[in-house]
C-alpha cells in the first residue's frame, strides 16, 4: 500500500524581502493537492510579512503558526509531522528536533532553485542528524535529475483556460485591474496599449531603462509602466524621469500572493524578481525578464548564465537579461529587447517553448516529494 504523510510541517525563516516566504507558502498550498494530508502547518518567524503576503487565510486544512524565536514555548509539546520541510536550510527548534525520531518519517531541506549542473549530484543526498533522523537535500531545478519545479495548478480554470490566457482582455482580468490598480490601467489594457510590469530589486537599472525608452522606437507607442509601491519607493530616480505624452507610470499597492498570477496577466512584458515570481512567470504566455537575487562575488551571475543556457533563449534575450542584472553590461541591450517585445510577433515563441519544456521535461516538485516519501517509508 502506498504511504503518504497525514501531516506536513513547513518551516520558513524570513530574513529579507518576500522571496523565501513566497516559495514556502506556495509549496504549503500546492503540496496538499498531491498528498491530501489531514493537516499542514506553516511556521514562520515574521507574522507581519506573512499577513502582507496573505491578508486572508482561506486555505482548507492549512494552519499558519508564528514564533518570535526558536526557543518559543509553543514548540515544547508540539508533535512533529510525518513530513517536515525546512525551507532553505533554516534552523528548527531544538525541542522540536528532539521529538522528531518517534514521529517524523521524512525530513527535507528544500534548497534554492538552480539550473547549475552540480545540483544533480546533491539532490536527495542524505545527512544524518544528531537525533538519528536522516535529512535529505531537495534541489529544485530545470533538469530531469533535479527536484524540479512547483508546477502550475492546471485545474485552476482562471489560470489556464482560453478566456484568461494569452494576455486576453477577458472581463475577469479587466475587472481585477479596475479593482486592484485602477480604471485607467484597465482602459490601457482594453485598448491594447503596451504594459510593462516591473517587480525588481533596487539594484536593477529600471530608471535608466524607462528613461532610454522615451527616445527609443517605442516613444510613439502608448505604454504604461506598472510598478509596486515597494519598488517605486526604493528607486527614487523613477519619479524624476521626464515621460513623454505617450508613456505613463502607475504605482500599485502590494498584490497578495493569491493574486500574483493576475498581475502577471496584465503585462505584455513582466520584469520579475526572485524565485517564486520567476517560476510563476514561466507558466504565463507572456515574455518576461528575470532579476535574480544579487549575491556577493557575482555568484548570482553564474546561476543566471546557467539558467539562460538551459532555457535555450535567443542571444538578444540573454544580453538583455545580463544587462538587467549586471551593471557592467550596456543598458542598450535591454532597451533593444524591450523594443522587440512590442515589434516582433514571434517574440513569444521562446517562452512558449521553455514553458512546454518545463511542463513536460522538468519534474513536478510536489510529485517528487510525494514519491520520495513513499520510497523512504517503504524501505523502513
Automatic annotation (TrEMBL):
<comment type="similarity">
    <text>Belongs to the glycosyltransferase 104 family.</text>
</comment>
<keyword id="KW-0328">Glycosyltransferase</keyword>
<comment type="function">
    <text>Protein-arginine rhamnosyltransferase that catalyzes the transfer of a single rhamnose to elongation factor P (EF-P) on 'Lys-32', a modification required for EF-P-dependent rescue of polyproline stalled ribosomes.</text>
</comment>
<protein>
    <recommendedName>
        <fullName>Protein-arginine rhamnosyltransferase</fullName>
    </recommendedName>
</protein>
<dbReference type="InterPro" id="IPR016633">
    <property type="entry name" value="EarP"/>
</dbReference>
<dbReference type="GO" id="GO:0106361">
    <property type="term" value="F:protein-arginine rhamnosyltransferase activity"/>
</dbReference>
<dbReference type="Pfam" id="PF10093">
    <property type="entry name" value="EarP"/>
</dbReference>
<keyword id="KW-0808">Transferase</keyword>
Amino acid at each position: 500500500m502506498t504511504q503518504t504523510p497525514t501531516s506536513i510541517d513547513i518551516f520558513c525563516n524570513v530574513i529579507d524581502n518576500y522571496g523565501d516566504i513566497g516559495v514556502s507558502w506556495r509549496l504549503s498550498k500546492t503540496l496538499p493537492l498531491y498528498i491530501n494530508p489531514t493537516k499542514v502547518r506553516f511556521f514562520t518567524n515574521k507574522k507581519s510579512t506573512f499577513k502582507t503576503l496573505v491578508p486572508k487565510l482561506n486555505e482548507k486544512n492549512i494552519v499558519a503558526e508564528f514564533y518570535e524565536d526558536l526557543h518559543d514555548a509553543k514548540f515544547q509539546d508540539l508533535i512533529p509531522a510525518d513530513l517536515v520541510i525546512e525551507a532553505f536550510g533554516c534552523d528548527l527548534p531544538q525541542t522540536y528536533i528532539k521529538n522528531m525520531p518517534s514521529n517524523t518519517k521524512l525530513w527535507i531541506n528544500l534548497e534554492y532553485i538552480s539550473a547549475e549542473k552540480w545540483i544533480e549530484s546533491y539532490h536527495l543526498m542524505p545527512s544524518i542528524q544528531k537525533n538519528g533522523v536522516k535529512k535529505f537535500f531537495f534541489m529544485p531545478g530545470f533538469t530531469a535529475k533535479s527536484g524540479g519545479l512547483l508546477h502550475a495548478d492546471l485545474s485552476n480554470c482562471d489560470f489556464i483556460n482560453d478566456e484568461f490566457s494569452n494576455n486576453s482582455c477577458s472581463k475577469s482580468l479587466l475587472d481585477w485591474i479596475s479593482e486592484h490598480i485602477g480604471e485607467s490601467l484597465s482602459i490601457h489594457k482594453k485598448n491594447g496599449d503596451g504594459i510593462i510590469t516591473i517587480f525588481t530589486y533596487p539594484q536593477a537599472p529600471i530608471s535608466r531603462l524607462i528613461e532610454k525608452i522615451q527616445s527609443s522606437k517605442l516613444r510613439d507607442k502608448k505604454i504604461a509602466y506598472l510598478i509596486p509601491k515597494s519598488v517605486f519607493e526604493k528607486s527614487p530616480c523613477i519619479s524624476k524621469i521626464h515621460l513623454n505624452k505617450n508613456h505613463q507610470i502607475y504605482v500599485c499597492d502590494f498584490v497578495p500572493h493569491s493574486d500574483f498570477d493576475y498581475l502577471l496577466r496584465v503585462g505584455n512584458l513582466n520584469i520579475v524578481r526572485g524565485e517564486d515570481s520567476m517560476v510563476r512567470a514561466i507558466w504565463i504566455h507572456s515574455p518576461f525578464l528575470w532579476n535574480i537575487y544579487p549575491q556577493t562575488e557575482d555568484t548570482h551571475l553564474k546561476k543566471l548564465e546557467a539558467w539562460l543556457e538551459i532555457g535555450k533563449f535567443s542571444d538578444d534575450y540573454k544580453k538583455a537579461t545580463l544587462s538587467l542584472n549586471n551593471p557592467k553590461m550596456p543598458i542598450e541591450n535591454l532597451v533593444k529587447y524591450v523594443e522587440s517585445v512590442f515589434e516582433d510577433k514571434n517574440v513569444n515563441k521562446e517562452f512558449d517553448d521553455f514553458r512546454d519544456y518545463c511542463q513536460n521535461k522538468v519534474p513536478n516538485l510536489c510529485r517528487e516529494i510525494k514519491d520520495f516519501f513513499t520510497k523512504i517509508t517503504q524501505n523502513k
